[in-house]
Amino acid sequence: MVKRNDNLRQNLITISIILFLLLSIGISGYMLIEGWGLLDALYMTIISFSTVGFKEVATLGEFGRIFTMIIILSGMVFIAMLSASVTSLFVRNELLASRKKKKMKKTIRNLKGHTILCGAGDTGTTIIEEFRHARKPFVVIEEKQEILEKLDEQYPDLFIVAGDATKDEILMEANIKNAGGLITTLSLDADNLFVVVSARDLNPNMNIISRSVDPHTESKLYRAGANYVISPNMVEGLRMASVMLRPTVVNFLEVMMRGNELSFRMEEINVPKGASLHEESLQKAQIPQRTGLIVIAVKKARGSKWVFNPSSSTILHENDKLIVLGDPDKIDKLHTLLKE
Length: 340
Hints:
CATH class of the largest domain: Alpha Beta
Number of domains: 3
CATH topology of the largest domain: Rossmann fold
Strand order of the largest sheet: 3-2-1-4-5-6
Distance between the termini: 41 Å
Helix content: 55-70%
CATH architecture of the largest domain: 3-Layer(aba) Sandwich
Structural class: alpha/beta
Largest sheet: 6 strands, parallel
Shape: elongated
Number of helices: 13
Order of helices and strands: HHHEHEHEHEHEHEHHEHHEEEH
């Protein structure tokens, strides 16, 4: 969208410059050849340039007629060039948009383990920013045209499916069969409920998170298949209380998550099957030394036990989940380490 606007702006500037030059030449020519005033010269230039065929200001001399023919031919050429330029611009933009859409659809069809975000309003925009910072693949489903245009301008490389997220065919277009998770943040609880029901039916194994404005809808969303239901009112209440009770902690978390001073993220890393760290202690794994990450906790796959501030003797096993703190580059190092 930004490139398209730049091209349009450049074409308009070029056209304006050419038009100004032709008008200046026409006015100067009539004033010098026929000795007319500024207004008469401007009027004659415009009616000649536009080839509308109005009556001449005064009888033209021989040189005046020759000059008028030149102005008329210049006007015809200019109008032809203007038409061709505008047509070419729109056709090119349409072709580029069509090509981009086809490429995006193909890429989405090849995604695996991605997250689908239904709704890109205020809440959805925050989620988009977080996923982009975490470098996780995701697809956005949005229906409103004004939001789609804003997303296209702000995130030109974003994977977007335009349509109603409550419809199965739109979810299928977002490759829900191969998705690892879905977040629905639609404004109406009824729409979120429809999305959860459809998503659970199309992909029984995915992780589903839903927004719920009305507390009475929460239980229905869980019964429909949501793994987690988030209530904005509850989250806002907890946040306000936390700011009052522990302002320094909240300020630190805000700086850590969104500030420019630190780019740290608290990330959940799964120990995959066949990982080199399987049955190794944290002391032997040397995760802080090899990646720069801080290991905050370990959730054991066996018994689902949490180990907070794990000691160096803690043994890692397949499917354990590490809760680590660090920037995205260091998190990528841990992923690489686990694949060795």
